[in-house]
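Q: Predict the bound structure with zinc ion.
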Amino acid sequence: MQPGLFCLHLHTTNPFSIMRPVLLFLLTIISLTGLAQPKDTWVIRVGKLYDAQNKLFLANQTLVVVNGVIQAVGPQVAKPAGAKQLDMSRYTVTPGLIDMHTHLLIHQKQTKDGLEVASKVPADQRVERGLRFARQYIEAGITTVRDLGNSGQYLDVRLQKLLSKSGNLTIYVSGPILSPPGGQFGKLFPADSFVINQEYRVVKGPADAREAVLEHVRQGINVIKVCMNTDNRVLAPDEIEAIVKTARDNGITVTAHATYDESARDAVLAGVSGIEHGYALSDTTLELMAQRGTYLVPTDASRRLAARLVAGIGMVGKEADDYANSFLNGVHDRLRRAVAKGVTIVSGSDYYLDVAGVGQGQGAVDVVLAYHEAGIPVSEVLQYATYKAAKALGVSDKLGSISKGMQADLVFFEGDLETDFAQALTQVKMVFKRGTPVFSKVAPVSRKKPVGGSRK
Ligand SMILES: [Zn+2]
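A: Predicted complex:
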């Protein structure tokens, strides 16, 4: 299936984007921000711990966190005097999850006028809403995101500055997507064409491509996102080469939106670090990616989310089932072939739609379930959203795993994430950011059986 074929919307990747009226879903939360300072020392007993570097679940572990940093992990550890004690023996702990493909500054209904509505929201409102969405990511267990455009003209840099003060979500930003003429669209009504310059940086030749990267660097972005193809328009090989070289000279990596195989191959040959979506990747291109160490960000959906999205575009019955199955079979096949060829997989949701009953954080965390449904073990899909993502960001020395010296970004899922993945993934009950609890719904006392049994 070719996603985006029938879409007329701001971001033409998602195949579920023409829609019906929608209800907003509101989460009741308990914020513990400010309750504890990073200088606190914690001793936390957990039922299970996900070891992201080794792709293992370890039972009955104890963590010591001092000044926001993990000091010790193991079945038996020395407990510092005066530490705050936390019994999380009914919970599974993972490193804070990382979503490598978000759009915090766009929110689009699945309606025919979704583009028009989404693109006319004033900049200040987009930033305020982005702060609310950031909170939803935290509540879903995502503590770091990489935001890849559709963020106006550097509204993502503004949002990053605001979030850096709050101490909650960490956000890496791309600025406007570098694209061929016309932005990332199929046909646009003339009245909507303002969106191209509002949301994209159109590239006109290799010299202009270099200038576009330098503009972004001056604005303080962390990564360059390019749109390699949209309909029949593509970035030319000399343009993508100029982008990658200029970015590299400035210590920045490039990731490429590529839904066509040929465009993805051009991007890989030019030296991009990652391919976003890659729905139509051939075995030849996957082999090239494996050889060159180019990662793939599969922006897929689980069966349960796909059903919601298909309902949102007005399909019912057999038509809906066929559409969802066609999408799921396609992305599962692509992911399994990528894994079999040895391509590095990094988790990214690309969830920016306004769908009834599915908040931004929930929709984002769903993508790891999607990978599991393709037949990939739980212990591996969690690595895509932790250690592998941190490596792709160049920060695996402080994020993405739970071991001595790492920043204490931690998520506590009620239940056993290893054996009851789909259920436990939705049961985030506590989140630590830099050693501080920033979200908690933990019941004070429990007599239930600990997670993980007697295994040591
Ligand atoms: Zn996207």
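A: The radius of gyration is 21 Å.
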